[in-house]
Design goal:
362 residues, 25% strand, alpha/beta, 6-stranded antiparallel β-sheet, 16 strands
Length: 362
């Protein structure tokens, strides 16, 4: 068990929704537009980052009337470990500070990055179906989210790297003192090396877990992590120093972990994922998600969010998915427009009917 006594206040189309008596499998069933994915999005915000939709804070408060947002929202949940509540975690935005996301853990204000120390959350949504053909930046975010679920400190390292690179860009543009540049590049290199090491380690662990999966019924992907520059602090620092003129002209650093790439090919054929069929890409994404859910559940409570996944699988793959999830330790949340795709697990699941922002326990 991971999350219990979940509350949503003025979030998206939910005025005041609560979910309790959760289970290993939790099903949200309802028509399109009812608010099922909104619940998953709320849960995803109990981790660092912008959640499954990467929405801005201004898009999240419920509209009390057309075009008028309520101004603030709140999401809270109890964290349950071995049958006992270990923490109450929550995130919210106050009406008078609509651009500032706040976090509380056990009633005390905390940073968003600290959420990863308590809970590992990962997800698979229809919007991710184009991941292999998307930008390198989208795949880096994917890698970072998977890495964060394995290494809680990763979010802080990524934030520190981004801050250092922004400051370096500013100094380059203003032609700042070389000594300040030396210092900020040393910081960027140190944080960058940590980010690169975290990513490489998580992708290596994920590759090992993927190798243990059967090739069928899901296509087996092979992952290759390609660093965007030197991965040792000293080498990265020196490279940043050498490339100041080039980076000043470009307006950004062209070397470093912010240029990393994830290559994915299908095992056996060696075909690049971007060139595979839509069905093969979906199967590889599910395989990665299943393998990652095993790693994410080690050491901390883990939650896996699957939006409209079951309905797009044939019966054989759907059964394999449920069996794999049953063996895992993660608490699973799934959405669907009808209950029939979940018949195999319905008897052991907590089920809610979602209708225009309201929840009814079935």
């Amino acid at each position: 068990m991971a999350l219990e006594k979940i509350s949503l206040e003025n979030f998206r189309n939910h005025a005041a929704s609560e979910l309790s008596q959760t289970a290993k499998f939790n099903l949200l069933v309802g028509e399109n537009g009812a608010g099922k994915t909104n619940v998953l999005e709320a849960l995803s915000l109990l981790s660092p980052g912008r959640g499954i939709r990467r929405a801005s804070l201004s898009d999240l408060p419920r509209q009390s009337e057309p075009g008028v947002a309520a101004g603030g929202f709140a999401i809270g949940a109890s964290l349950v470990e071995q049958g006992q509540v270990s923490a109450r975690i929550g995130t919210y935005v106050e009406a008078d500070q609509p651009r500032r996301r706040l976090v509380r853990i056990n009633g005390t204000e905390a940073s968003a990055t600290s959420l990863s120390e308590w809970l590992a959350i990962s997800w698979l949504t229809p919007a991710m179906d184009g991941l292999f053909m998307d930008s390198a930046g989208a795949r880096r975010r994917f890698v970072d989210r998977m890495t964060l679920a394995i290494e809680p400190s990763h979010a802080k390292s990524v934030s520190q790297l981004e801050t250092a690179l922004r400051e370096r860009n500013r100094l380059l543009e203003e032609r700042g003192d070389a000594r300040w540049l030396d210092a900020i590049e040393a910081q960027a290199a140190q944080h960058g090396a940590t980010v690169a090491a975290n990513r490489a380690g998580s992708m290596e662990a994920l590759s090992v877990e993927l190798s243990a999966l059967p090739a069928q019924p899901f296509a087996k992907p092979v992952l290759t992590y390609r660093p965007g520059g030197p991965t040792e602090p000293e080498a990265l620092r020196d490279e940043l120093g050498r490339q100041r003129a080039r980076d000043r002209a470009a307006g950004r650093a062209l070397t470093g972990p912010h240029r990393d790439e994830l290559d994915v090919v299908m095992a056996g054929s060696g075909q690049a994922a971007a060139s595979c069929s839509t069905g093969e890409q979906k199967a590889m994404l599910i395989a990665i998600t299943l393998a990652h859910s095993v790693l994410a559940a080690e050491g901390r409570p883990s939650v896996l969010l699957l939006d409209e996944v079951a309905a797009h699988l044939d019966p054989v793959r759907r059964k394999a998915l449920f069996e794999r999830l049953s063996r895992g330790r993660a608490q699973v949340w799934m959405t669907g427009t009808e209950l029939s795709p979940f018949d195999e697990i319905a008897s052991e699941a907590a089920i809610w009917r979602v209708s225009v922002g309201t929840l009814e326990r079935l």
